[in-house]
Amino acid sequence: MANEEPDMAQKLALLRAQYAQNFGARVDELEAHRQDLNADEAAVRGDALKQIRNAAHKLAGSGATFGFPEVTSCARELEQVCVLAIENGAKDDPGLASRLGALCGRLREAATDQEEGVTGADVEGERPLVPQMHDSFRQKILFIMEYDGPTAMQILLEMDHFGFDARIIDHPAKLLDDLNDNGAVDVIVTGLKFDGDEEVALKVLAELRKNVAHRDLPVVVHTELDSFVTRLGAVRVGVKAYMVKPVDMADLVDELDRVTQRREDEPYRVLVVDDDESLASHTELVLQGAGMETRITTDAMNIFEVLDDFSPELILLDLYMPGCDGQEIAAVIRQREEYAGIPIVFLSGEADKSKQLSAMEMGGDDFLTKPIHASHLISSVRIRVARFRELRSFMVRDGMTGLFNHTTTKQLLDNEIARVQRSGGELALVSLDIDHFKSVNDSYGHAVGDRVIKSLARLLRQRLRSADIIGRMGGEEFAAILPESGLEEAARVFEQIREAFSQIVFHNNGTKFNVTISCGVAAFADHGTATLLSDAADKALYTAKHGGRNQVVKAD
Amino acid sequence: MSEAVLSKILYVEDDLDIQVVAQMALETVGGYTLAVCSSGQEAIEKAPDFEPDMILLDVMMPQMDGPETFSRLRAIEQLQATPVVFMTAKVMPSDVERYKKLGALDVIAKPFDPMTLATRILQIWNDHHGE
Questions:
Q1: How confident is the model at residue A134 (pLDDT cuts 50, 70, 90)?
Q2: pLDDT at position A328, please?
Q3: pLDDT at B11
Q4: Has residue A325 got a pLDDT over 90?
Q5: Quick one: closest CA in B to A371, which residue?
Q6: Residue A130 falls within a domain, yes or no?
Q7: Predicted pLDDT at A340
Q8: Last residue of a domain, which of A337, A369, A396?
Q9: Distance from CA of A89 to the nearest CA of B (A)
Q10: A124, B119: Cβ pair inside 8 Å?
C-alpha cells in the first residue's frame, strides 16, 4: 500500500523549497536599504540601519527552521553589525555599506542547498529507567481528628500497622493550619462532636472545601452520632464515608483504601508504534501529560520484544509505515493468544471511511484521524484501557483480593524470567503462607478468615512497588515476584512485611487476635529456571514452617 | 495528574514564512487548534472569542511588539491567567529573564526545529501544570 499520508517531512521539504525560492527577493529587499547608508543625514542612515537590522533579525529567526543554518548565522552577524552601528549613532562610515554588502552576498549563498536535514532544537533525552526502591513507597498521610485521646491513639496505632502515616489533630480549629504545614494529606478521619459541640467539625469541613487545594480531599466520618440530619450535614460538606462507632478497624481501612483509591491507580501503559519519531514523541508527551506510562517503537519488526517487555494495555498504531503497514501488524499481534484482547487503536491521516473500516476488520478497535486533539486522544485511550482492565481483571485476578490468580502469576513469572535472561538484572521470588490459617477459620469463621486474607493482600500491595507482582496462589498461599531485587533485598523487605503483619490486631466479637506469616525467599541468580526458582522458594517456606513459623527463610 | 489539556493556541507572528511552518508544526504534529494572527492588534481582537489555552507570541513585531501585546492581552479579563510563551531570535539570557519577570511562562528561541516545536510547547505546558 502506498504511503498516502501527507507526512510532515514531505510538507517541510516543500516549504523549504519555497523559502529558498523566495529568498533572493528577501535579500534584495534588505539590500535596497544599503544605498541609504551613504546618505548625508544621520537620520536617514539610522533608519536604513534599522530596516536592515529588522530584516536580518527575521531571517536569523527563520533560516535554520527551514534547514538553512548558514542563513541564521550569517543574518545574525548582519544584525549584530547594524546594532553596533546604530549604537554608535549611525556615524558616516564609508566602509560600512561595503561590509554589509559582503555579508549580503554571503547571505544569498546561504540559502542554496548544501546539506539535507533539519536539525537544531533540543530533542528530549532518553529517560533512564531507574528502578524504584522498595523503601521509597510513599505512605499515605492520614489525619485523625478526634476529641477522645485514647480513641485517637488506638486508630493511629492500628493505621500505622496498615502502612498509613497517621497524625492526630485534637481539635477542628487546628485542622486548616495543620493541613498547610503538612503538605500532601491523603485522607481525613474525623469525629463530629468536640467539647459537646456537634456542629464544629462540619463547619470546619465546609471551610476546608472553599480552598481549591482541599476541595477533593477525602473525608471519612467516624462518630457515635447517627441521625439523618447529621448524615445530611456530612454529605453536604463532601464526606465520602460515614461510619458509626464502634467501628472495626479492618472496615475502616477498607473505607480508607476505597476513598483514596483514585490517587494510587497504576498509570495506564500505552505503546506507540509510529515510524515518524517526532509524531511519536509528541503523542508520548500528550499521554504522559495525562499521567500515563508510554513506550515508543519506530520499528514494527521488533514489536513482540517490546510487547513482552513493556506489557502495554493499549497499542496506538500508525496505519502507514514502511516495511509493513498497521493493518498487518494488528493482524500479527492478534495471532498471539495473550494479545488477542489488547485494544489496538489506529492513528493516521487517512480520512477515507472505507479504508478506516477495512483497517478495523484486521483487528483494530478504533480509528483516530491525525491530527488529533490532545484531549480526544487522552479520553479515547483512557476509556479503552479502563474497559480493558476491567475485562482482563475477571480473567487474571483473584476475586477476593484483587491480586493475580495462580495461572497469571505463573505466567508472569515466566515473562519476568525471560526478561532477565534477555536484559540481565536480578529477580527474586517469595512464597508465603498464613500460619495456622485453618485454626483462624475454625475459631472465628470464614468471614473473619477472609478478612485476614484481605488484610495481608492489602499490606503486600501497600509495601511492594508497582513493578512487583503479587499473586494469590490459592487459599492462604501467596507469591511475590520482585524484579531488580536480589536475595538479601527481598528477604529484608519481607522481614518488614512479616513484622508489620504480626502487629495487626484482628477483632471478632470482642476478642482480639494476631496472625503471622511464614516466607521463603529465592533468587533467580541461584536458581536459573522458573521451576527451580519456585521449588527453591517453596522449600525455604517449608523450612520456615518447620522452624517455628512467623519467619523469613532464604533458600540455599 | 493534571486535568488541563492543551488544545487551543493563539499564535502571533508577523513573519509569514515562520507563520506557515509553525502552523504546520503545531497542527500536524501537535494536533492543536490554532488561531494565527499577524499582529498584536489582531491578537487582541481575536483572543477573547477564541479563548486560547495558551498564547504563543513573537517578541519583535512592528507597531505593537511582543511585550506590549502581552500586557494588553493581560488586561483582558478572561486572559489574565492564560499562559503566554514568547518566541524570539534574541537568545540573550538577560532577555529571557526579563520576559519571564514580565510574566511569560517560557521563551522559545528562534530558529526552532519544526519537528519538535509542538513537543517543546507541550513540555512547557506539562511542566506548568505538573507540580
A1: low
A2: 84
A3: 96
A4: no
A5: B31
A6: no
A7: 79
A8: A396
A9: 22
A10: yes
Chain A residue nearest residue B19, CA to CA: A62
CB-CB under 8 Å, B129 with A62: no
Question: How far B87 CA lies from chain A's nearest CA (Å)?
Answer: 9
Pairing between strand A469-474 and A427-434? unpaired
Query: Do A44 and A97 share a structural domain?
Result: yes
Can you give the residue ranges of every domain in chain B? 8-130
The model's pLDDT over A366-384, given as tens digits with 9 standing for 90+, comes to: 888 877 778 888 888 988 8
Phi, psi of B29 (to 5 degrees): -80, -45
> Could you tell me the residue range of the domain that residue A528 belongs to?
406-554
* Interface mutation vs chain B, best among A78, A286, A347, most B CBs within 10 Å: A286
Collect all residues of chain A within an 8 Å Cβ-Cβ radius of residue B129: 289
Nearest-neighbour CA in chain B from A437: distance (Å): 41
CA distance B8 to B11: 10
Q: In the prediction, which pLDDT does A183 show?
A: 67
0.90 surpassed by complex ipTM: no
pLDDT (tens digit per residue) in A328-358: 888 888 888 778 788 999 887 777 778 778 7
The answer to whether the CB of B68 falls within 8 A of the CB of B39 is no
- The nearest alpha carbon in chain B to A9 belongs to B115
Measured CB to CB, residues of chain B less than 8 Å from chain A are: 1-2, 5-7, 15, 17-18, 20-21, 24-25, 27-33, 60, 62, 88-90, 110-120, 122-123, 125-126, 129
Nearest CA in chain A to B3: A290
Residue A248's alpha-carbon distances to A244, A352, A381, in angstroms, are: 10, 60, 39
Residue A507 DSSP code: E
User: Which CATH number covers residue A368?
Assistant: 3.40.50.2300
For domain B8-130, which architecture applies? 3-Layer(aba) Sandwich (3.40)
Q: What is the average pLDDT value for chain B, to the nearest integer?
A: 88
Mean pLDDT is highest, among A75-79, A336-340, B49-53, for B49-53
Distances (CA, A) of B1 to A264, A467, B4, B104: 11, 20, 9, 23
**Contact B15/A61, CB-based, under 8 Å?**
yes
Residue A229 in 3-state DSSP?
helix
Tell me what pLDDT residue A113 has.
Answer: 64
pLDDT confidence of A418, banded at 50, 70, 90? confident
CA distance B111 to chain A (A): 4
> Whole-model pTM?
0.51
Structural domains of chain A, count: 4
| Same domain, residue pair A72 and A188 | no
What's at A338, amino acid-wise? E
> Residue A111: exposed, middle, or buried by beta-carbon count in 10 A (0-12, 13-18, 19+)?
buried
Last residue of a domain, one of A264, A295, A318: A264
Q: Do A378 and A346 reside in the same domain of the chain?
A: yes
